[in-house]
Design brief:
The complex is a heterodimer of chains A (105) and B (283). Chain A has 105 residues and is mainly α. Chain A has 5 helices and no strands. In chain A, helix 3 runs antiparallel to helix 4 and helix 4 packs antiparallel against helix 5. Chain A starts with a helix and ends in a 7-residue tail after the last helix. Chain B has 283 residues and is α+β, with helices and mostly antiparallel strands. Chain B has a domain of 76 residues: Beta Barrel (Thrombin, subunit H). Helix content of chain B is 39%, strand content 28%. A 6-stranded antiparallel barrel of chain B has the order 1-2-5-4-3-12. In chain B, strands 6-7-8-11-10-9 form a 6-stranded antiparallel beta barrel. In chain B, a hairpin with a 5-residue loop joins strand 3 and strand 4. The chains are: A mainly alpha (105), B alpha+beta (283). Chains A and B meet through helix 1, helix 4 and helix 5 of A and helix 1, helix 2 and strand 1 of B.
Chain lengths: 105, 283
């Protein structure tokens, strides 16, 4: 579990660099939709969907991803942490309570 | 749904530490110090990804213009022929220009005290750039940011020790006085976000031509006079509204900006007015 969390943190750092540098440049020619595309949010959402139901590493990903977004954001610190934690909590709640799909979960 | 009871003391401790950390980041000097450290630590890697993004976006832009290449080729050939005819005159004009510049001691570096800075990051959601100059380089909030071609880019909005954030003129936080060349129009340029800019508060009886250059006015004290903002893209005259509005195409090409210049010492006049009033009260 701890190795998984270290890997997630490392991956989020890499995605933050890509988001603020590479994707920000591409967004200038990609049209308005690409300006609102944030790879960290997409990663956290997808990760929380595909994580095993009883595991909670997605909450760690939400906190760390939110911290990274807050460093580069104009909003108050903690804004993106709250947003991402709320999103992950809602996804986990729906998946645990209402979804019964016999897949890798 | 029953919420599970958190029995682990570690989780309570982590939550409390998190709350204290967030409060310290927002309300104490820890926030700017930590952000400055993060920007310093990530600057080399971020410059690399920024440069890579610039090269790839340039290539993609070239690919997308293949369809118009033939027509553009024909137009350019006609332009080349015309320019060849004019080229003999250009040499004389250049010499005259240099002589006049020397005589009048003009030039951006002679008019203003400038600091050159490099961009290495951008926040698309808030239309802001990150540059590699900060408080250690005498940068302060409110200083205008321009290019070497006298095109206005934005204004310093936040300063850290070694970095600063620049609000672009298209940011929703920006509103400044402008003139429209070729007419007596003075108006207010407002940022719309998403690299959009509009011109407002222009009386309806004033005629604005499409493509007319828009320059900064020193009236508001935000930017010095005469810097290019953009060109008029479209005009909207509404019978119901008192003023006409226009869309401005910004002159700065954000995808090409690598170096910018900060005008040191030129600050929003409101600060100067307040400091004068304060000095009067003390005396």
């Amino acid at each position: 579990m701890s190795a998984k969390i270290v890997f997630i943190i490392f991956l989020l750092c890499l995605l933050a660099l890509i988001q603020m540098g590479f994707l920000a440049r591409l967004a200038l020619i990609g049209g308005s939709w690409l300006r609102y595309f944030n790879i960290i949010i997409v990663f956290v959402v997808i990760f929380s969907f595909f994580e095993r139901r009883k595991e909670n590493a997605s909450f760690v990903a939400a906190v760390f991803g939110g911290v990274l977004l807050d460093f580069y954001s104009e909003n108050f610190f903690g804004f993106w942490v709250l947003i991402l934690l709320t999103i992950v909590f809602l996804i986990k709640f729906v998946l645990r309570k209402y979804v019964r799909v016999p897949t890798f979960w | 749904m029953k919420f599970p009871k958190i029995k682990s003391f570690n989780i309570y401790f982590a939550l409390l530490a998190g709350v204290f950390f967030v409060a310290a980041m927002n309300f104490t000097v820890l926030g700017p110090i930590v952000k400055n450290f993060v920007y310093t630590a990530t600057q080399p890697a971020q410059k690399m990804t920024w440069g890579l993004g610039a090269r790839i976006s340039g290539g993609l832009r070239d690919l997308s213009s293949v369809q118009n290449a033939l027509k553009e080729n024909q137009d350019l050939r006609a332009t080349i022929d015309r320019l060849r005819a004019d080229s003999s005159r250009i040499g004389e004009l250049e010499k005259e220009n240099e002589t006049l510049k020397e005589a009048l001691n003009l030039g951006l570096d002679k008019e203003y005290d400038l600091r050159m800075a490099e961009t290495f990051g951008m926040d698309m959601l808030s239309d802001s750039l990150i540059i590699d100059k900060g408080a250690d380089d005498m940068i302060e909030v409110g200083f205008p940011v321009v290019t070497s071609d006298k095109v206005v880019v934005g204004r310093i909005s936040k300063v850290y020790n070694n970095f600063s954030k620049v609000d672009l003129i298209s940011s929703k936080n920006m509103a400044f006085d402008v003139n429209v060349s070729g007419s007596d129009a003075n108006g207010l340029a407002r940022g719309l976000g998403g690299l959009g800019l509009m011109l407002d508060l222009v009386p309806k009886e004033i005629e604005m031509k499409l493509g007319a250059p828009v320059t900064t006015s020193a009236l508001g004290g935000i930017f010095p006079d005469g810097f290019l903002v953009g060109t008029i893209e479209s005009v909207d005259k509404n019978d119901v509204e008192t003023f006409q509005v226009a869309k401005i195409k910004p002159a700065f090409e954000i995808e090409k900006i690598k170096e910018v210049f900060i005008i040191i010492g030129y600050k929003f006049k409101e600060d100067q007015t307040k400091s004068v009033d304060k000095a009067r009260k003390i005396n």
